[in-house]
């Protein structure tokens, strides 16, 4: 177990530095930048700023400085938000994204798992087809469509919540509901397919032959194995939810990481772009490691090997 965790941490560090390299290279291919896009600035002032940020150095030297910043956990300063480090910006936006994403994850699990299990236990019935149709509609409906519809209904028509902004304690409800409904559709499809496959296996027939009740067969035997594909999906999905959906945060005007990432790309703030991409990659690595450990705990046949 310890060897496996250490091996995964080393692999994760390699992945994170690869993300830094790729994001850095892509940012350099984009014309302009936070310094070059500034208007009404003299050439001397522009050169002074480029020297301050190290932009006058060769690319390989700048990349080396990026590695040094992240290896020493001394993150650089944002180009656009003067005087603010990128870690400070992430720390200000992440709580908003995490509040919405955490609630959306609970909504997705609360809807998706029961809906998928309900459909799996009633195959080829009206309930199964209705549940599958609802899940398919959820998968096919983009957040840029569902978000405004939910804001229009619950925000503007019924006036139960604010249609946009981050002002009241309940402002997380509508964006979390938007994300939760969409992700619940994927979880429902995965749960249904996995549970149907598990219920057809030999050990389930053995448990029934020994006189186990249907509830014990489903919840004590089948669901443990059927939950493995859902756990696999939840690794990157949880990281994506916690770092914020760019579209949903734009629709509901939330000051989360998604808005900062869009602003960084628009303003040519390459330091902030690299930082948010690296933060997202680190979350994916951490959640995937947690998923591997949980899978081994649920299924003894899975062995954690480096």
In short:
The protein is an all-alpha fold. The protein has twelve helices and no strands.
Could you describe the 3D structure shown?
- With 306 residues, the chain is mainly α.
- The chain has a domain at 94-256: Orthogonal Bundle (MetI-like fold).
- The chain contains 12 helices and no strands.
- It is flat and about 85 Å long.
- The mean pLDDT is 82.
Sheet with the most strands? none
Give the helix tally. Answer: 12
Level-1 CATH class name of the domain at 94-256: Mainly Alpha
Fold-level CATH name of the domain at 94-256: MetI-like fold
CATH architecture of the domain at 94-256: Orthogonal Bundle
Structural category is mainly alpha
Radius of gyration in whole Å, from Cα? 24 Å
Q: Summarize the helix and strand pattern as letters.
A: HHHHHHHHHHHH
Mean pLDDT: 82
Number of extended strands = 0
Q: How large is the share of residues in beta strands?
A: under 5%
CATH H-level homologous superfamily name of the domain at 94-256:
MetI-like
Helix content: over 70%
Approximate shape: flat
How widely separated are the two ends? 8 Å
Which runs of at least 5 residues are low in confidence (pLDDT < 50)?
Answer: none
Topology:
Elements: H1 2-29, H2 43-53, H3 59-71, H4 86-121, H5 126-140, H6 143-157, H7 173-199, H8 202-209, H9 214-242, H10 246-251, H11 257-267, H12 270-298
């Amino acid at each position: 177990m310890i060897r496996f965790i250490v091996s995964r941490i080393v692999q994760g560090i390699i992945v994170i530095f690869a993300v830094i390299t790729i994001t850095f290279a892509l940012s350099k291919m984009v014309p302009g930048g936070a310094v070059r896009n500034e208007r009404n600035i003299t050439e001397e002032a522009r050169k002074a700023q480029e020297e301050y940020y190290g932009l006058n150095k060769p690319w390989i030297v700048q990349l080396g400085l990026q590695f040094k910043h992240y290896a020493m956990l001394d993150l650089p300063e944002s180009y656009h938000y003067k005087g603010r480090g990128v870690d400070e910006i992430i720390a200000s936006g992440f709580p908003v994204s995490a509040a919405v994403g955490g609630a959306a994850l609970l909504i997705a699990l609360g809807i998706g798992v029961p809906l998928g299990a309900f459909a799996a236990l009633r195959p080829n019935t009206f309930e199964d087809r209705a549940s599958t149709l609802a899940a398919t509609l959820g998968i096919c409906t983009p957040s840029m469509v569902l978000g405004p519809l939910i804001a229009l209904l619950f925000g503007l028509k019924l006036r139960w919540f604010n249609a946009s902004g981050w002002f009241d304690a309940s402002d997380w409800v509508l964006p979390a509901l938007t994300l939760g409904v969409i992700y619940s559709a994927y979880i429902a499809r995965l749960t249904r397919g996995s549970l149907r496959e598990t219920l057809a296996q030999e050990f389930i027939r053995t448990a029934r032959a020994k006189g186990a009740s249907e509830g014990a067969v489903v919840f004590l035997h089948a669901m443990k194995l059927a939950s493995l594909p859902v756990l696999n999906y939840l690794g990157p999905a949880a990281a994506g939810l916690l770092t914020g959906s760019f579209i949903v945060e734009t629709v509901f005007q939330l000051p989360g990481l998604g808005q900062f990432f869009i602003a960084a790309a628009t303003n040519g703030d390459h330091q902030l772009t690299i930082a948010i991409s690296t933060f997202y990659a680190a979350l994916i690595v951490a959640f995937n490691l947690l998923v591997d450990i949980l899978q081994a705990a649920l299924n003894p046949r899975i062995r954690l090997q480096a």
